[in-house]
Specification:
Radius of gyration: 16 Å
Largest sheet: 2 strands, parallel
Order of helices and strands: HEHHHHE
Strand content: under 5%
Oligomer: single chain
CATH superfamily: Photosystem II 12 kDa extrinsic protein
Helix content: 55-70%
Number of strands: 2
Distance between the termini: 43 Å
Number of domains: 1
């Protein structure tokens, strides 16, 4: 019984870590971004991927804002802990 509790605790911690993991906008799919980022739906997520495919990886949040219509400072701030490059 004690082993089951330990296993459940470890599984819970792993799931929490996965849920809190940042989304790398240079590798994530549109579906992953739309699901994980606050205020990013399918349309913006598709624009991120289309722009990335056409012009290469994003260096940082400032470049993401410059290159993708619909991404501004408020959206970046809402997702500051979730964005990775």
């Amino acid at each position: 019984m004690k082993l089951i509790r330990v296993f459940a605790a470890v599984a819970g911690l792993l799931l929490s870590a996965i849920a809190a993991a940042a989304v790398n906008v240079n590798t994530a799919s549109a579906e992953e971004m739309a699901a994980a980022l606050n205020g990013v739906g399918e349309a913006i997520a598709n624009r991120i991927v289309e722009e990335r495919d056409a012009n290469g990886a994003y260096a940082d949040a400032a470049e993401l804002q410059e290159r993708v219509k619909g991404i501004g400072p408020a959206l970046v701030e809402k997702n500051a802990g979730e964005l990775a490059f």
